[in-house]
Design brief:
The protein has about 210 residues and is an alpha/beta fold. The chain has a single domain, classed as Ribonuclease Z/Hydroxyacylglutathione hydrolase-like (Metallo-beta-lactamase, Chain A, 4-Layer Sandwich), CATH 3.60.15.10. Helices cover about 25% and strands about 30% of the residues. A 6-stranded mixed β-sheet has the order 1-2-3-4-5-6, covered by helices on one side. A 6-stranded mixed β-sheet has the order 7-8-9-10-13-14. Strands 11-12 form a two-stranded antiparallel sheet.
């Protein structure tokens, strides 16, 4: 599987580009900004992007949705509980002194246990509320990889002081959905460096 990370936007979001080496079908996860950079990376990898996935609806993770969707004629997926955030992204960004763009509405909703395919690759949706009510992680079992969005970071967890956040709910989501994965699964968070499930289970100071 092809996996390329592009750090985008003023809040340094990890936009993750995945692709099937056999068919060149791919997905883009969290198009947080810098659309031209994301598009150039996809084209350099010679991928055909069929789906854009948002792990959650915060403005810093959806900022380049419109441009990427239009460039690749792709479908947008997000959890139903976070979909209302898409049309308010620019307004929320302005409140932080950042220029942002609203996103088109989704073509389909993520739900717990859902399987997403791109070529020969398969990923499973894990609904992990707590950072937001619709927050999701994406588990690629064959590649021993999980994309954790703003649910779990290296030696940290997502903030829970924003609307829809719940510290207790986030801890429960991580323990029931992520810490049940094998130790050697590599976790790619929405910001910052990668980690492993085993490391976080043993050393994350929030547990």
């Amino acid at each position: 599987m092809i996996c390329e990370i592009v750090v985008v936007g003023p809040l340094a979001v990890n936009c993750i580009i995945l692709g099937c080496e056999e068919t060149r079908e791919g997905v883009v996860v969290d198009t947080g900004g810098d659309a031209e950079q994301i598009i150039a990376t996809v084209e350099g990898l010679r991928l055909n992007i069929g789906q854009v996935i948002n792990t959650h609806g915060h403005f810093d993770h959806v900022g380049a949705n419109r441009q990427v969707l239009e460039r690749f004629s792709a479908r947008l997926l997000i959890h139903e509980l976070d979909a209302p955030m898409l049309e308010r992204a620019a307004e929320v960004a302005r409140a932080y002194g950042i220029r942002g763009d609203n996103s088109p509405q989704p073509d389909a909703f993520l739900c717990d246990g859902m399987e997403i395919s791109f070529g020969a690759c398969r990923m499973k949706v894990l609904h992990t509320p707590g950072h937001t009510q619709g927050g999701c992680c994406l588990y690629i079992e064959k590649e021993k990889t999980v994309i954790t969005g703003d649910t779990l970071f290296a030696d940290s967890i997502g903030r829970t002081d924003l609307p829809g956040g719940s510290h207790e709910q986030l801890l429960a989501s991580i323990q029931s959905k992520l810490f049940t994965l094998p130790d050697d699964v590599v976790a790619y968070p929405g910001h910052g460096p990668e980690t492993t499930i085993g490391h976080e289970r043993q050393y994350n100071p929030y547990f």
